[in-house]
Amino acid sequence: MPSTCAQCSLVPNIVPLIGEVKSPSQGSEFDSTSGDVVEIIKQVFQPPRRQDICIDHMIIRRCQKQPDAPAICAWDGDLSYQQLHDASELLGSYLFQLGATPTTFIPIYLEKSKWTAVAMLGVLKAGAAFVLLDPSHPLHRLRQICSDVEATMVVGLSRDKNMADSLGGAKFVALDEEQTWRCQTPCHLPSQSFSSSPAHAVFTSGSTGRPKGVAIDHAAFTIAAHEFIQRTGLGVGSRVFQFASYAFDVSIADHLVTLTAGGCVCIPSEPDRINRLSEAIHKFRANWADLTPSVARLLSPKEVPSLATLVLAGEAMRKQDITDWALHVNLINHYGPAECAIGTSLSSPIEPNAEPGNIGY
């Protein structure tokens, strides 16, 4: 359901309906920003209830419910929900002992890997917030992000230690040097974070080109995740193809929303993601994907017969996109800026004769 900000963006669509009830001759000039309109919108669109729970706690529940189910299926290895829980618990304990707090933002410097989910969940269990760094971005941009969040530690793989060291001198934690953090004596992880605590930050270029950070708290994410799961049908049988770059918040939803729902995150290698997309989707038997329309246009339904749900986001959908996909998958239009957790609006499955401008609510 839309936030207050999203509700206001729907005013232009509701104004014509109000006009049918109140013609210009019956009153003064209509003000679409008036309090009356906002009240009408509030009555039509009830915002979801705030959930007083953290993301990692929701995923822990899922791990306890289905420990042997596949959580991660990646080019560099697979993890069950129990394995994901165990690894992230030890990592979280180690990060906590290094001084992670609810005000700590920990950058994660990784290419596509099974370790990304371990790192995200480990940071959250430590009570801190994470920031995904895209290794393909210029060093000066990554360094600026680390400076903005005042990073005291960076998580990555040992091969990237020299690069990570150049990001500002933060302590480097190598995920693949498991003897370092797995041999630590696990400590009891107190519930440091609250639903109002930041869970992650996303950096966008903005109008100036300088990275601008947006912090998303646990409550905002869990509310949005619940609505997203309910309305897209994401669930235990979902195999979600993780395409989005780590520079975009869709990549975070691909991981954490999927794990909350009990699905499996399918992670291709970077070369396969870029050069062999249809083959990678087929190889992972992925039945769910969130892509930009321009990327979806590189595919055809015949090339990816396993795909059952296709969410298009990040760009405007065209009529041809509907023609190409609506008869073959559950096609969903998704919209939302980085400032809003996961998104602000979501369409119902799109029919072949639908208008591409329908972004739902």
Automatic annotation (TrEMBL):
GO terms for cellular component: cytoplasm. The keyword Coiled coil does not apply. Keywords: Ligase, Phosphopantetheine, Phosphoprotein. One of its GO terms (molecular function) is ligase activity. Residues 61-360 form the AMP-dependent synthetase/ligase domain. One of its GO terms (biological process) is secondary metabolite biosynthetic process. This is AMP-dependent synthetase/ligase domain-containing protein. It comes from Trichophyton interdigitale (strain MR816).
